Amino acid sequence: MRKGELKLGVAPTRRRNFPPGDSVEYKQRIQAKLKAWQVDFVDIDWLNEEGLLYEELDAPQVAARFREAGVDALFVPHCNFGTEAAVGALAKAVGKPVLLWGPRDEAPGADGMRSRDTQCGLFATSKVLRRVGVPFTYVVNSWVDGPLFARGLKSFLGVASAVRAFMGARIGQVSTRPGDFWTVMANEGELLERWGVRVVPTTLVDVEMAVQAYLQKESSALREAVADLKSRVTFVGMDEYQIKKVAAFKLALWEWAQEAQLDAIAIQCWSALQRSLGVSACFVDGELSAMGIPAACETDIHGALTSVMLQAAAQYTTPTFFADWTIRHPENDNAELLWHCGPFPSVLAKTAKPEVGGHQTMGGEPPSAGHFEIKGGDITLARFDGDRGAYSLLIGEGKGTTGPSTWGTYIWVEFGNWPRWEERVIYGPYIHHVVGIHGRFAPILYEACKYLPGVTPDPVEPTAEEIAAYWRGEDL
């Protein structure tokens, strides 16, 4: 898991032929904002008396310091016009997502003189970044104390978090895909070659042995896990030994995830696992997802990778849930049932102690599937997928709504135009699996694709233009 705080490399820039006083003042104001927002950042106060970048030849040592500190992204506030060559050299050398922004200028003085010309310099720097092939995120020239800078900076941190999580992710694979599920085929070689994503396999035999080891030890860890589960959910039709198996299964997968440094797990959740362990994976999948190791059903590698990206875009403030696009609402033409047979995190349930019991698809046996509706509100949905070497990220937002009850774990979600979604999924390269998370993160996911070579953003609702308007702050 890579949940640690993001580290931001901050390199304020100025241009020599403007007086440095105003630039230093704005640098200090910007740093004060970052501290107030509890952003972990590395500054360049050590570089010179002003702590500002204005010499191109200083870029290599600043880049080296940032790399040594392990920064995840670069922020280059233009405290006046800035020095575009220095910024271009620095951004190229650091090789991380870049935020370009500068505070608005005050009116010219009584003598007609201007002290910063920040916006003009931003235009110059953007051209240099294009010239050196560095993608960047831009927040419109705005007041340092205004809402656009605040939202833009915080959204950019979500972008950097999603990129960090996706690149080099480690996905644990438990067994092979179910034989009939051609839909979850994934090209492991392409994932590794393009984005450094590693698939870490294990077998059901290894998992079963780990579970049995926990059951035989009867350790305090197992007793505590059982007590914890009983305190949070209501087990229906499950005896004490079955509950112990569930707890042991959770502990075994968690231990493997820590040892193998996994970011997510894709598990063959039926039907060999049920014959092997005598319980279903569903509820444990939800438990792991709530702990920050999303678990995707049916050995869906792309689904697991989507979950990794989505929880990171939310900066780990809430867990993801792994769902099927299932049926349209019987009365609301723009609503859809997001459902799966029991793997949504119980912490998202509407009820205080949600039920966990039999797996209805398998006639009620074996046990350990959740049966509850999750809370509503704003929902972001995404799906990373591809075929024939082309990859894209389906992105959009909806809102939880009311609908008929059903078994398993579920939520009804209303959209502005469901047929548009349905058409997009049908024509692909997507499948019936989708990952959801509470909150509105479509603009962050869309922008993150800029830093993921070969991943095309595919927004539905909001549209690409509506997402651009978000970054411009047109709604503020």
Key attributes of the depicted protein:
15 helices, L-fucose Isomerase, Chain A, domain 2, 476 residues, Rossmann fold, five-stranded parallel β-sheet, alpha/beta, 19 strands, 2 domains, elongated, six-stranded antiparallel β-barrel
Computed structural class = alpha/beta
Unreliable sequence segments: none
Name the shape in a single word: elongated
CATH class label of the largest domain: Alpha Beta
Helix content: 25-40%
Number of helices: 15
CATH architecture of the largest domain: 3-Layer(aba) Sandwich
Oligomer state of the chains in this structure: single chain
Trace the largest sheet across and list its strands.
11-12-17-16-15-18
Rg calc: 25 Å
Topology, number of strands: 19
Notes on the structure:
This protein is of the alpha/beta class and 476 residues long. It has two domains: 7-145, Rossmann fold (3-Layer(aba) Sandwich), CATH 3.40.50; 170-472, L-fucose Isomerase, Chain A, domain 2, CATH 3.40.275. 38% of the residues lie in helices and 21% in strands. It has 15 helices and 19 strands. The protein has helices at 20-36, 59-69, 84-94, 118-131, 147-166, 188-195, 204-217, 220-232, 240-259, 272-277, 282-290, 301-313, 418-427, 442-448, 464-472; strands spanning 7-10, 40-42, 73-77, 98-101, 137-138, 170-174, 198-202, 234-235, 264-267, 295-296, 320-328, 335-340, 355-358, 367-373, 378-387, 390-401, 409-414, 433-438, 455-459. It has a six-stranded antiparallel beta barrel, surrounded by four helices. A five-stranded parallel beta sheet has the order 2-1-3-4-5, sandwiched between helices. Strands 7-6-9-10 form a four-stranded parallel beta sheet. Strand 4, helix 4 (118-131) and strand 5 form a beta-alpha-beta unit. The radius of gyration is 25 Å and the shape is elongated. The chain starts with 6 loop residues before the first strand and ends with a helix.
